[in-house]
Every structure is written in structure tokens, then in C-alpha cells.
Design a protein that fits this description.
single chain; alpha/beta; five-stranded mixed sheet; three-stranded mixed sheet; 8 helices
């Protein structure tokens, strides 16, 4: 992708989790000498026209300020709702491009190649852009998804008013009912671009954090050749 080339995609980074199991904000964790949030931003800034960071209302850690320093637009969950579905809605509301790539601020090993492939697939339809979801380990991943903004903004808003709080349930229902229309990448298709499926690794527990630190330890053999201390 050429520098300054418009992609028609906004990167939405969900960063308002409370990190209760870790005791520290996940976006602000240092891995290999770099913040997890900076690792996410480094990948997405090459693929997206702009980046949106969604914070929790009243979030008092340094993640929102750090997001601003990383040239991300900061918004908060759509009131009166909270949680990941409300965060996705807030991000979609702030998006002005046809497509959005949605991910979490605790995904340190995003694959640029995989995201590029998903975006290309979204634009490959002759009838306009289409949402692209990835099914890995038997489930769709709402925080690694390319969404058609107009379709999903309406769908998420309706789901929130009906009391739905789970983006996974909403996307699984869409894949079955064809509304909003989605294309699903199989695990085999995903592995063509991310053989070890590291894009879907998130940091929720001390054990996962320990694994991530080991993966970025320069004294160890890397599981994926594009993982480096300074980022992907």
C-alpha cells in the first residue's frame, strides 16, 4: 500500500476494558519495550485512513491520552450502554469511511497481511463492500472484523435497544440469517496469512501476558518470523 493512499477503512480499537484480572490497563502494558496500544496502532496506521480509540466513560487510566498521542481519535461508549457492543457502536458512529476494521487494544500480534486480505475481500464484491468475519477455533471473532459501517451501525443500535450486549451473538446471528450480509473466512483461509493464528491472541490473564512476553523475548526463537521487539 502506497504512503498517503486512501483505503476507505477506519481502524476502531476497543480499549475500555477494566483489566480486573491483570490489575493494570491492557493497552498500557509494555511488551518488548513497546506499549501494546502502540503495537496495534503501528499496524493499523498503514492500513486505515484514521484510527478511533473507544474508551470507557470515566476511564481514568492513561490509555485515552496515549491514544491521542498516537494520533487516534478518542470517543467513549454509547450512552446509556456499556461493554464491547456499545464500544463498537461508538466506534462505528465516529467512522466516516465505508468500512471499519474492529479490534481490541490488547491484541499485540496483529498480522498486517491478514488484515489486508480481509479488506481486499470486503471490496472484492461487484455489488459494493461486504463485511468480512473470521471463524477461528469454531467461533467468529468480533474483535478482528471488517464491517460495512452503514449496515452494522443500524444492526448494533437495534441490538442494544433490545438488550443485546454480546457482539459475538450478534455476529453469529448475522452469519446465519444473512442480515447484515457477511462473508466468513474459514480457519484454513486465515492461516494462509497468519499460519499460527497469532492475530487472535489477546491478553486477558497473567498467563497470557507471560506467554506474550516470552514470544517477544529476543533470547527465544520466534513463533512467527514477522514478530519483532519493536512491533510487527
Amino acid at each position: 500500500m502506497k504512503p498517503n493512499q486512501r483505503t476507505g477503512v477506519t481502524g476502531i480499537v476497543i480499549g475500555g476494558g477494566r483489566s480486573t484480572r491483570l490489575g493494570t490497563p491492557k493497552p498500557m502494558i509494555q511488551l518488548g519495550g513497546k506499549l501494546v496500544l502502540a503495537r496495534v496502532a503501528d499496524i493499523l496506521q498503514h492500513l486505515c485512513d484514521e484510527l478511533v480509540f473507544v474508551a470507557r466513560d470515566g476511564q481514568e487510566d492513561h490509555a485515552p491520552d496515549t491514544a491521542i498521542a498516537l494520533r487516534m481519535h478518542v470517543v467513549t461508549d454509547t450512552e446509556p450502554y456499556e461493554g464491547p457492543l456499545a464500544a463498537i457502536h461508538a466506534g462505528l458512529t465516529a467512522t466516516v469511511t465505508p468500512l471499519a476494521f474492529v479490534t481490541g487494544a490488547d491484541h499485540p500480534f496483529l498480522s498486517r497481511s491478514l488484515i489486508e486480505a480481509m479488506i481486499a475481500a470486503a471490496f472484492s464484491s461487484g455489488e459494493g463492500p461486504e463485511s468480512v468475519l473470521a471463524r477461528v477455533a469454531g467461533r467468529l471473532h468480533p474483535l478482528h472484523a471488517v464491517l460495512v459501517v452503514a449496515d452494522w451501525l443500524e444492526a448494533v443500535e437495534e441490538a442494544l435497544t433490545q438488550g443485546e450486549r454480546s457482539p459475538s451473538r450478534l455476529m453469529e446471528a448475522a452469519a446465519v440469517s444473512n442480515g447484515p450480509s457477511v462473508a466468513v473466512m474459514t480457519e484454513d483461509e486465515v492461516q494462509r496469512y497468519d499460519p499460527r493464528l497469532m492475530s487472535f491472541f489477546d491478553i486477558d490473564t497473567p498467563e497470557q501476558l507471560s506467554i506474550a512476553r516470552r514470544l517477544l523475548d529476543p533470547r527465544r526463537v520466534k513463533l512467527r518470523p514477522d514478530i519483532r521487539q519493536g512491533g510487527l
